[in-house]
Every structure is written in C-alpha cells, then in structure tokens.
C-alpha cells in the first residue's frame, strides 16, 4: 500500500494540482454566467446622425430636422459589451416622398447588428426639409 502512494509521487501530485486548477477555472467562469442580474443590458446612444435614403435619380437636396436622434438598444451582456456607437445606423427613407404632399415628417428607421434589439428612438419622426427650387 505504501509503495502505491510513494511510487511516482511527484507525477501524482502534479496531476492533482492540475485537476484542481482546471476545476477552479471552470467553476469561476460558470459563476460569472450564473450571477444575478438582468439577462439583457440596455444602452442609450445620444446624437446618432440621421442619414437620408433616396432614389439614385433623385436630385432633391433633402435635409432632416433634427439631424440626430437618441437610440436605445438592448441585448445580451456579451453582445452589448462589444457594441460600438458606429454600428447603430438611423435613417429616413424618402424614396416615396412626394414634395407636393402636406406631410413633411417621416419615421426614423434604425439598423442594428445581429443580437441587438431596438428599444426606442427619440424623436420617432423627423421633419423633412426640401430647399426651395432655384429659378
């Protein structure tokens, strides 16, 4: 029995220490995943510029007011931890805009990366400004 313990003692001790180190590492990462808190994280980005999407042949010089919006998005901690403000794109689609109409407001659309959900946009609509025709 004694020889069973003493034979290759240093290899056995190394194996036990390595097993403990692996267990502690896995246990630590599992605890991080199981810690209490919201499953999703919400972040608000202010001053997101509003781009204008128009038809390729459209020669109108559209502008929007206000030119920036606040966008609130949500997602998992991992996704939101690496999300950058330049990955959020706000735009107004004026391809079907009729300059003769009395409706001078359009809804702001927002494009987000995969795994990110749009929560809110403030303001939800922006004014369309069409400069007067030059004579």
Features:
135 residues, alpha+beta, 5-stranded mixed sheet
Largest sheet: 5 strands, mixed
Structurally, the number of domains stands at 2
CATH architecture of the largest domain: Beta Complex
- What is the number of beta strands? 8
Class per helix and strand makeup: alpha+beta
Oligomer: single chain
The fraction of residues assigned to DSSP E strands is 35-45%
Strand order of the largest sheet: 6-4-1-3-7
> What does the average pLDDT come to?
82
Tell me the series of helices and strands, N- to C-terminal. HHEEEHEEEEE
Categorize the overall geometry: rod-shaped
Question: Topology, please?
Answer:
Layout: H1 2-6, H2 9-34, E1 40-53, E2 63-65, E3 68-76, H3 77-82, E4 89-93, E5 105-107, E6 109-111, E7 116-122, E8 125-129
Parallel strand pairs: 1-4
Antiparallel strand pairs: 1-3, 2-8, 3-7, 4-6, 5-8
Description:
The structure is a single chain. The chain is of the alpha+beta class and about 140 residues long. The chain folds into 2 domains: about 1-35; about 40-130, Beta Complex (RNA Polymerase Alpha Subunit, Chain A, domain 2), CATH 2.170.120. The protein contains 3 helices and 8 strands, in the order ααβββαβββββ. The chain has a 5-stranded mixed sheet with strand order 6-4-1-3-7. A 3-stranded antiparallel sheet has the order 2-8-5, with no helix packed on it. It is rod-shaped and about 100 Å long.
